[in-house]
Amino acid sequence: MLPTPGSLFVAIVFGAVGLAAFLHGRRVGSIKPVLIGVALMAYPYFVADTTLSIIIGLGLCFLLYLFRD
Predict the structure, then answer these.
(1) What are the tens digits of pLDDT across the range 12-65?
(2) What is the three-class DSSP state of 26?
(3) What are the extents of the domains in the chain?
(4) Smallest Cα–Cα separation from 4: which of 53, 54, 48?
(5) What's the burial of 40, exposed, middle or buried (CB within 10 Å: 0-12/13-18/19+)?
(6) Is residue 56 within 8 Å of 17, Cβ to Cβ?
(7) Which of 7, 30, 33, 58 could anchor a disulfide with 50, C-beta 3.0 to 4.6 Å?
(8) Rounded to 5 degrees, what angle do the CA atoms 44, 48, 52 make?
């Protein structure tokens, strides 16, 4: 199945957020943002539906907000 422009855009946006969380977590030495950042960067490879991708990305961003230090 080919990705839609919407799913590509969502993957880029949440991938950038994941990269920022990953780099921040490495800099401060906290494992939680590193793991959530990896999840944000990786999940778009496995989810093709745009709506589901947005829901998962927002959920992971909420977890990132909850587990901030």
Answers:
(1) 999 999 999 999 999 999 999 999 999 999 999 999 899 999 999 999 999 999
(2) helix
(3) 5-66
(4) 48
(5) buried
(6) no
(7) 7
(8) 80
